[in-house]
Task: structure prediction
Amino acid sequence: MFSDSLIPRGTTPNAIINITNDTWFGATPGTYQHLDMVRRYAIESGLPVIRANYSGISAFVGADGDVIAQMDVGAVGAIDGLVWGAHKTPYRYIGRDGMMIIILGHHTSISLEPEFIDALREIATRRSATVVVSTENCQSAQFFYCR
Result:
């Protein structure tokens, strides 16, 4: 929905403007979930969000995720508001790709079998080695160290 790639390098935004149309949600909780996603992104990015929605909830959301002002579903009119408090969060420092590397690295480190880790340690100490992965029974992987 929001992409780090849209922000030119070397610039720091003060807010996000989100123009959307929730008509396709119909009479479901979808439009409320959509607003909640915007609130969470405001917290994650440290940026306030100005949300203009043709048929859902229009709102001013602070950088802390608080809804400052809103216009409910189906209401006709205008809202006036002021947003402030943009700041850099850890997510904005490392970006989406950095966050994915951290998540994948953590997942990989906790999911490796102890035998495989031992084989990797052995490989690190020797020059010629091969690790063979066997999944004959398709239920668990077995790791063998071959010299």
Remarks:
- The chain has three helices and six strands.
- Residues 137-147 have pLDDT under 50 and may be disordered.
